[in-house]
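Give me structure tokens for this 285-residue protein.
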Amino acid sequence: MTLRYPQVLLLLCALTALPQAYAADNIKLDTPIGGWRSGAPGGEGENYSQTVNYPASSVNTPLGQADTARIRGQIKAAPKDSREPGKLIVNGMSMPLKLDAQGRFDRPYSFPNGSNSVEVRSPDGQHRHRTQFLNTSGGATPAKLRVLLTWDSDGTDIDLHLVTPDGAHVWYGDRVAPNGAALDIDVTTGYGPEIASMPAPIKGQYLVYVNYFGGGYRNVSDDEDSEGGEEGEESAGRQEPEQALTTAQVTIITEEGTPNEKMETFVVPMRAVGELTLVKSFSYP
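Here you go.
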């Protein structure tokens, strides 16, 4: 096949643009990596729940966590002074990815058997890294029901609540139920995600709630405060909410990784601290 000059020019332009968007040295994904893999023997070291530290940290996966059940890496291209999150896309589910000061991230994740994809994007969307792998049996039992909560503001605390057919209530105050339902972490610092899951869901009616537990605040200086004291009077300054309105997104996945997989996503505006919203009532199976 003979390429004409315009075709060669277009090809060269495309090849030149690829390193800018997919440069491997800008995003490092330690795990998972592409290929064929088996879970840890007997699920050893595959802990679903993160340790909750206060004040909360975005990187707090427990020591000893198996690499087969975590997502870990670093976005080197992330500006150190930026509070914007990166983006994590797992099997088509998009969620914010909060980073530490060096752009690192590390969180547990229970992958279903079969084909899985993980993509990480920088906060500005200019850099991305994607990997595809085939997960085989041998690790922890994959979740047949997964409920994922994210929201669009930093410094805010929105909580996920899952009520199961037998009356168990999974939330930050009781993260593991006797029936196997579990909440992976209570995120108090903004964006999420919080994930509730069950490896063997029981039959019956489920309820999914979100609660706007608390909002972030920022210090307002005297110069910013247009309603400060009279001229010549010093003000101690005040605090005001960073973002009163925040939008939550809830995704419910059943039979993940099977031909019967079903995914529903709901967008929930949260207008005031203390607001409790029933997002979805559904039956399983």
